[in-house]
Amino acid sequence: MNKDVLVEEDKPRGLSVVHKKLITYLIMVVLIFISATMVVFEVYEYRHDYRQMTTYLREQDDLNAEWGRLLIEQQTFGSTSQIGTRAVTQLRMFSPPTSDTIVISLPSLEQNK
């Protein structure tokens, strides 16, 4: 009976070493799983942001091309012949006949001196 008492006294109180290792391993597995989940989430977010950025860059290129076309169109329609043609065709403007035209002459500056 003395041996039984000694054996019971040698056992550590609380959790055994095996239980401590098991809890430690379980905590490590949970932390690794959480870390892996976060990596997957960050990769997904990166790919989503990259797709959005490439969409914006394509849109910027399209807008730059349209801006260039608008500048060329502005230069084309800014010429005098184009203004006259558009005034007649779109605004239905016309030159008045000579009978309806009045010419006003301004006095020259040399006569006033």
TrEMBL record:
> What top-level branch of life does the organism fall under?
Bacteria
Coiled-coil positions are none
Membrane-topology annotation of the record: Single-pass type II membrane protein
Q: Enumerate the subcellular locations listed in this protein's record, separating them with semicolons.
A: Cell inner membrane; Cell membrane
Q: Gene Ontology terms, cellular component aspect? A: cell division site; plasma membrane
Classification via PANTHER family: CELL DIVISION PROTEIN FTSL
Please give the subunit comment from the record. Part of a complex composed of FtsB, FtsL and FtsQ.
The molecule here is called Cell division protein FtsL
Which species expresses this protein natively?
Acinetobacter apis
Phylogenetic placement of the source organism: Bacteria, Pseudomonadati, Pseudomonadota, Gammaproteobacteria, Moraxellales
